[in-house]
Write a structure and sequence with these properties.
The complex is a heterodimer of chains A (about 280) and B (about 300).
Chain A: H1 4-34, H2 38-41, H3 56-62, H4 70-106, H5 112-121, H6 128-140, H7 147-171, H8 175-183, H9 188-199, H10 201-217, H11 220-225, H12 234-238, H13 249-269, H14 271-284
Helix pairs in contact in A: 1-13, 3-13, 4-7, 4-10, 5-7, 7-10, 7-14, 8-9, 10-13, 10-14
Chain B: H1 8-13, H2 17-46, H3 65-71, H4 74-106, H5 112-118, H6 120-124, H7 127-137, H8 144-151, H9 165-193, H10 197-205, H11 210-238, H12 242-247, H13 259-269, H14 273-304
Helix pairs in contact in B: 2-14, 4-9, 4-11, 7-9, 9-11, 11-14, 13-14
The chains are: A mainly alpha (about 280), B mainly alpha (about 300).
Chain lengths: ~280, ~300
């Protein structure tokens, strides 16, 4: 007996399997490439399951010996740089951003909407349109190739996100709660710290995670403004796994896998918060 | 206002609401002014000048010449066309795939929960890693795509996928779609979750088919989400740089040289700072106009909800 509902269900399951393959297959290949030996990588057709899996690529990055590629040698330094920069940006933009978001969401003052829209509009600007003057300024202050420089610049693109999401969260908190705290003798900032902030904890987590991921992902500023292990970040280093004659894809994929670990883990752990943060910002504008 | 609740002494001590607001916004605004608004104005200034690297300090005013040069340059128009192609195709595919996958996962079949979480992985991977991963998959001599198609007998010999301009562009678009579709899925799933169930029950009683339900209920109610996705993704697509830099460096034969990459080359490749400024200003203007449309549509979208 032909059953339309059942048919649709079977189709749906098929589609879901396809989606799962589409998600995992490329990522699987990245991981497999990182644990294959060079000679296996250069087989045609490739070995989908490596016969001799090896952790050499990882060892070369964690404990660089003489003779490994320069990118592998400096990789762990750049991981540290990336962590410092992303962590610094997250802390600063979360602190300043949630204050600003509170004012923009809850306080009444002239030019409120204009300020909010101009801050959000900066998200739309391409990084390159500010790059030349920034390069000149940073040279003047001797900040080229420093982590401070990256923290300042990354702040400018994470703050609009922070404000966007936090304004959305703050607006969902009824003013009556705050009014009650004020009547009981709380100051305005007191009610912010004791009432508003604890209630928007999910928003704060979402914002922290997204700010960190954005900074971890950033490439263009780091490409132009850093050139030594002193401040170079992970994305820049990954593009430099080129040998003398050919690109060392095995090590490159290893770097790629390592660079994926923090954001992917964070995304999976904080899944719920990220979804809420993104949609809160997106849906409520 | 509620200030009359407080004693005279207390009110005196506290800043007025507007003062407090300005005070706590100040740090963010000052940094943004220094690091975004000042540079933008400086870029605008540079775009009307010419700079000689051999003669520092000499920056003659040349009016609109930089802009006029670009409007006469085929490189410029080709870059614009490529950007438009990239934006149109990638955003279109992300929208359709994103909507399809969101509807699929919204049926809450066995395994949907797992996929809803797993789909975060492509989105969480850094853009540069997306670039090297797909570049390696497309590799002409040892790539997985060649290996797969060859094993299945679809191609008779290995192809240099990224060596043909048109193919290269499409393959970069596929990589971008893989990366950003999850974001679209997330937005749609969130919107689908809050759709009123009563409407569907009423439609079912009235004998509407699944397709009619989709066309008459789901799609209209998703309009705000669709607009948000469309315009925010278009803005990002206009600014695409990282993935192009990593995968093709604008090549082959400039086949993937989008406007942002062209600007990068002018500025940091040929060191034509003033021409680069003019270009980046053109991008900013285009993107900002799109953004204004965005804000306008978004307000409409909110009224709709």
């Amino acid at each position: 007996m032909f059953n339309q509902k059942k048919f649709i269900k079977v189709l749906s399951y098929l589609a879901m399997v396809l989606v799962a393959i589409a998600i995992f297959a490329p990522f699987y290949w990245l991981i497999i490439s990182s644990i294959s030996t060079m000679s296996e990588l250069l087989c045609t057709p490739p070995h989908w399951f490596p016969k001799y899996p090896t952790l050499d690529n990882y060892l070369n990055i964690f404990f660089p010996k003489t003779g490994v590629a320069r990118a592998a040698k400096i990789f762990m330094y750049t991981v540290r740089n990336s962590l410092i920069v992303a962590g610094g940006v997250t802390i600063i933009s979360l602190t300043l951003g949630s204050f600003a978001a509170y004012a923009l969401a809850k306080l009444v003052f002239p030019m409120r909407n204009q300020i909010l829209i101009s801050i959000l509009a900066t998200r739309m600007l391409p990084a390159i349109s500010t790059m030349i003057p920034l390069y000149i300024i940073m040279t003047k202050f001797n900040l080229i190739d420093t982590k401070i420089c990256l923290i300042i610049l990354y702040f400018t693109f994470s703050i609009p996100y922070v404000i966007w999401i936090m304004v959305g969260f703050f607006r969902t908190i009824p003013s009556e709660l705050e009014d009650a705290a004020r009547i009981d003798g709380c100051s305005r900032l007191g009610s912010f710290f004791r009432v508003i902030l604890p209630l928007s904890a999910p928003g704060l987590i979402a914002t922290t995670v997204i700010a960190f991921m954005l900074s971890w992902d950033e490439f263009f500023f780091a490409l132009i403004l850093t050139n030594t292990p002193n401040a170079k970040t992970v994305p820049v280093t990954i593009t430099e796994f080129a040998g003398r004659h050919l690109i060392d894809y095995g090590s490159m994929c290893t770097g790629g896998v390592l660079a994926c670990i923090p954001p992917v883990l964070i995304a999976l752990i904080f899944y719920r918060f990220i979804v809420r943060g993104l949609t809160e910002g997106a849906v409520k504008g | 206002m509620i200030s009359f609740h407080f004693s005279e002494k207390f009110r005196f001590r506290e800043l007025s609401e507007a003062q407090l607001a300005y005070l706590i916004i100040l740090p963010s605004v000052v940094i943004l002014l220094c690091v975004i608004f000042y540079p933008i104005i400086y870029t605008f200034y540079l775009s009307f000048h010419k700079m000689f690297l051999t003669q520092p300090g000499k920056v003659p005013f040349i009016g609109l010449k930089n802009y006029i040069d670009f409007f006469h340059s085929s490189f410029f128009w080709n870059a614009i066309l490529r950007t438009a192609y990239f934006a149109f195709l990638s955003v279109g595919m992300e929208l359709i795939l994103g909507l399809g996958i969101a509807l699929l996962l919204n049926q809450n079949l066995v395994g949907s929960k797992f996929l809803k979480v797993a789909i975060m992985i492509p989105w969480a991977i850094p853009t540069v890693v997306i670039g090297i991963m797909w570049k390696w998959i497309y590799d002409a001599n040892y790539g997985a795509l060649n290996g797969l198609l060859f094993s299945l007998g679809i191609i008779s010999k290995y192809q240099a996928w990224l060596a043909r301009p048109y193919t290269a562009m499409n393959l970069v678009i596929i990589a971008d779609v893989w990366h950003m579709t999850p974001f679209v899925v997330l937005i749609f799933l969130a919107s689908l979750a809050v759709l009123p169930k009563a409407l569907y029950e009423a439609a079912e009683i009235d004998g509407a088919s699944a397709w009619q339900c989709f066309k008459r209920i789901t799609l209209p109610l998703l309009t705000p989400a669709i607009l948000i996705v469309l315009v925010s993704r278009t803005v990002e697509a206009f600014k695409v740089f990282d993935i192009i830099y990593v995968m093709t460096s604008g090549g082959p034969a400039n086949g993937t040289q989008v406007i942002n990459y062209y600007t990068y080359l002018e500025t940091f490749g040929y060191l034509h700072f003033c021409r680069g400024s003019a270009l980046s200003f053109i991008i900013s203007a285009t993107v900002l106009i799109t953004a204004l449309i965005y804000i306008k549509f978004l307000h409409k979208g909110i009224e709709y909800i």
